[in-house]
Specification:
Length: about 400
């Protein structure tokens, strides 16, 4: 049975404040067509540490943002249910199964607050998106980090060995950040069947829109298995180009959605974000074009790495984890001195750096700066060369 509007608002304790000035938002039409940080006339660094859509939101979304500037003096309470209904319709589920959030990080915070505590443990892969581990530590929970397997997939058998009565939450990022790799869908389904019956599992699909046709991958929203333990996370920050407006959501059972909602930040969404997100869902053609552009730009990145005899992990996202053959701290520092910011050093993978795919101008500058480094010997290897993480299993953090 669908929830009433009153009950929905009682669940959704979120809301809004837009801090950008109208003058700044008037520039959004320009931002949609070019990455502001890519201008070589600017002193701002090139940010290749943020896995965003460098081309910004679609023109339709920009128009929706501009059209709603006159509403920023209002609280967005009446926008929550329509957005939840739009997301539910998009995924062919009910609004009761949608939990809105201030970016996907807010979903992770809610999940940590709901399922982790002093006597609980979080089980996740390493390396993976580290924010959820930080949240677990703040909740005084223990963190068990299990190294990826030689194909950079989650080592599900090893993770299973570390789940027991004290496990409060399992986190799976698929595609994984920072490796960009996939864990096969069939392996995940087998894993879920073996887990304790009430153990909550977060599946982070932040990069779902970047995954091309693959026999190994299928979303757990679009192709559900109707498991009440699952919390599937999506965001508007990546493909949709709305990282600055902070909007994400979770899809779960109605009971789990209520539990997550009780941990929400009160009025944590803003009115422009809710309306921009609805417009983004309606512009499937822009998503298709952005996905194709990313595939082409990622292939060009591969061409450049291969031409320099460098390794990279086969990526299904808008970033690439490359093996530089040098200490990652040295490479990151070199680029920093040349006004380019790369992703942080990757635990257990000392010679790897994560590079976000950006505009052609920014990537041209990336390779120019790369060539400033002294030459060093490096063996050629396949994209799936298992020079991956340390195999020490189940590191407690």
């Amino acid at each position: 049975m669908d929830i009433s509007r009153r009950n929905f608002f009682r669940q959704i304790a979120v809301g809004a404040a837009v801090t950008a000035s109208p003058w700044h938002l008037d520039k959004l039409s320009q931002v949609a067509s070019q990455d502001r940080s890519s201008s070589r006339q600017s002193s701002e660094p090139i940010r290749l540490d943020m896995n965003i859509n460098p081309n910004g939101p679609s023109p339709k979304v920009v128009e929706a943002i501009r059209a709603n500037l006159g509403s920023v003096n209002k609280y967005p309470d009446s926008d929550y249910l329509p957005l939840a209904e739009r997301i539910a319709d998009f995924h062919k589920i009910t609004p009761n199964e949608v939990t809105l959030s201030c970016g996907s990080r807010e979903v992770l915070r809610m999940a940590a607050a709901a399922f982790l505590s002093r006597h609980k443990t979080l089980v996740l892969a390493s390396p993976s998106f580290g924010h959820v581990a930080d949240l677990a530590k703040r909740a005084d929970a223990q963190v068990i980090a299990v190294p990826l397997d030689k194909y950079y997939a989650h080592d599900l058998n090893a993770m299973l060995r570390h789940t027991n009565a004290s496990t409060g939450l399992v986190y799976i990022c698929n595609p994984n950040n920072p490796t960009g790799s996939l864990t096969p869908r069939k392996d995940l389904e087998e894993f879920f069947q073996k887990l304790p019956p009430k153990l909550a599992v977060v599946i982070d699909e932040a990069y779902h829109e970047y995954v091309g046709p693959s026999s190994e991958y299928a979303s757990f929203i679009d192709h559900p298995i109707h498991d009440n333990r699952l919390i599937v996370v999506r965001t508007f920050s990546k493909m949709y180009g709305l990282a600055g407006l902070r909007l994400g959501y979770a899809v779960s059972s109605k009971e789990t959605s209520l539990k997550l909602s009780s941990m929400q930040l009160e009025r944590g969404l803003n009115i422009v974000a809710t309306r921009a997100a609805a417009a983004a869902l309606d512009d499937s053609e822009y998503v298709r074009q952005s996905s194709k552009r990313n595939v082409d730009d990622r292939q060009e990145f591969y061409n450049q790495t291969n031409g320099r005899m460098l390794r990279q992990v086969d990526s299904h996202t808008n970033f690439v984890l490359m093996n530089t053959g040098l200490p990652s701290s040295q490479v990151i520092e070199h680029f920093g001195r040349n006004n380019i910011v790369l992703g942080r050093a990757v635990p257990l993978m000392d010679k790897y750096v994560r590079v976000a795919i950006s505009t052609k101008e920014n990537m041209k500058e990336f390779w120019r700066v790369w060539n400033l480094q002294p030459p060093h010997p490096h063996k050629m290897a396949t994209a799936r060369d298992p020079a991956a993480p340390n195999r020490e299993e189940g590191v407690s953090l």
